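User: Batch of two.

Assistant: Item 1 of 2:
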Amino acid sequence: MEVLSATDQKKEAFLKGIAAACETPLSMGATQLREAAMATLESQPVPTTRSEAWKYTRVTRLIGKTWNKGEAQENATEYFVPEVNGWNIVFVNGQFDAAQSTMPDAAGLTVMTMADALKAGKLDAQWGSLTQQQSDWFEALNMAFATDGLYIHLEAKTAIDRPIYLLHLTTGDATAVVSRNFIQVEKGANLTVVQHAVSAEGTSAYVNIVNEHFVADNAQFNFEKIQDEAGEIYHHSTEWAEQTRDSRYDIRSITLQGHWVRNNLNIRVNGENCGTNLYGSYMPNGKEHIDNHTMVDHLIPHCESNEVYKGIVNDKSTAVFNGKVFVRPDAQKTNAFQQNANIVLSDDAEMYSKPELEIYADDVKCSHGSTTGQFDEEAVYYLRARGIGEQSARMLLVQAFVADVMDAISNDALRDYCLNKLQERASA
């Protein structure tokens, strides 16, 4: 009889708890995908800090806990940003709440749960085609156990002037939420989706959300991802996107609060004349840990990508930024820009920044940069000398520091919400 090591015992117990919490996963209807994902989970070890991709982010406490299924009933209206004026779609602990949701009724727009989309045969062709469930342990976990999510399909040459507002509410104690969303924007179409993850104080949970985005020729897709989770939430978020010719993909990843956050953003630029814009902001306090990993893969010539991530790190918190841009041999005339800037407010706070360019073409314009420092005390003094209190002066500087990220948010109400939350964090 094989004797499992302590590490393998923890892994086995963790997976058993997730399986019990996610009783009817979507992959039960996709045998090959499920088998591949389960094989990855069984054959590969849980990532550790010995892996470069996880060097600064520990998963020991996450794996060492036993997670359960959460209740699906909770009032979500208090968490809405109502001025967004979108169609509100609510998931509570990974389960669709029809009573609190308003499904879109626009021509050319199809929105349904992933479970219904799978039953209708809408996911057969592309579901899982971008993601790495055969090599990435946590993506395999999502493929194997995701219980539901949102399916969105926008027909060609259709423009939707209202955003789809997707609220993920997590509640309870030791709750496991494994969810998956699929969004396809066809040729010449235009769509905005807001994904807002929230939880209340006292909540403890593991949240694993994977998004697949397909942006077709000459289409435009705006994705606003807001993370504002109180309590002890381990949030693992993954986006995979693919663009084809003349398309534009804009994504804003704003982490307002989170106990342990890992964001993986992966974009394949697979057509000429594409525009890709990535903006991110984060402000960890206390002992929070926020890790952003991004990858933009330029495969085709004549494309442009722009990436700006800014963080303010306080108390005993930790932040990580690892951004990679690939320019493949055929991707001549690529223009790629990447910047990460950070302010560290405490001697005990830690910031790890690693921007990377990997270029295999010779006719490109690519640059990257990283800066980490403290508040400019001369600027604080300048403002105070003009009658502004110290706290107000620091909040003004915070607002100025993150202005280019906040200005990129497409919805005015959402921008104000994020900026107000960041200012509250700065003054705490």
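Item 2 of 2:
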Amino acid sequence: MPALTRLSVLCFGLLSSVAGSAYAGPLLLQSTTSTQNSGLYDDLLPQYTDATGDIVRVVAVGTGQAIRNARNCDADVLLVHATSAEQAFVEAGYGRERRDVMYNDFVLIGPSDNPAELDLDMPVAVGLEVIYARRLPFISRGDDSGTHKKERALWQGAGIEPDPHSGQWYLETGTGMGATLNIAVESNAYTLTDRATWIKFGNKQAHRIVLEGDAQLFNQYGVIDIDPAHCPSVDHEAATRFIVWLTGDAGQAAIAAYRVDEQQLFFPNAPTD
């Protein structure tokens, strides 16, 4: 065999070996704009890579889109914040197991002059009733994200259907949390956001938290490994490694240690085995 041909065969064999076994590419994590906007992954993932050597690529979209992407096998791991939708994902055979990983809370933000005259510790249903009664501008993400799902549940809990008022005082952006906050600030409007994104958000201007603390505003995040029986291409070993680290002592400590402006953004609560 000519030397050049032997070299070509050798190179092809080496590349095939690397592609087929030693290197499977980065772990694909479908997650939310809230975790991405908070800066958590910029802090957390380098620690994971240092510990394991694995690289993680994050796709940050709304929870609904992240779940759809994972259902279409465009993920190894799913980390989102809509517990009932996550459980349905697992029950339908798309994910193997859902585990709690961390929590924070949602807050209602609004103009500093607070035309709805909301009190910080007011029940959220009462606050929404006031916004509705006075037809004050409210910005919705309108994107089937975890935040949007929570917002819709809160309106329903208050006995209010905002859809007939879409395009009037109730405006839907169809965008992520950061863009929605920018629109709310520029429109002098109210909106719902997770606290972590609000703390990290750099364009608050005169807006502030006007309502917080209601138990209905609890915000749980869960992590799911994609079922290889549904998605044969999934890197199940890498997904398992990531989830074990994230829900173990090292990952939970890293989540607890992450702060912005000396404020803790997420609180780990993975169950202990």
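The longest helix spans residues 3-22.
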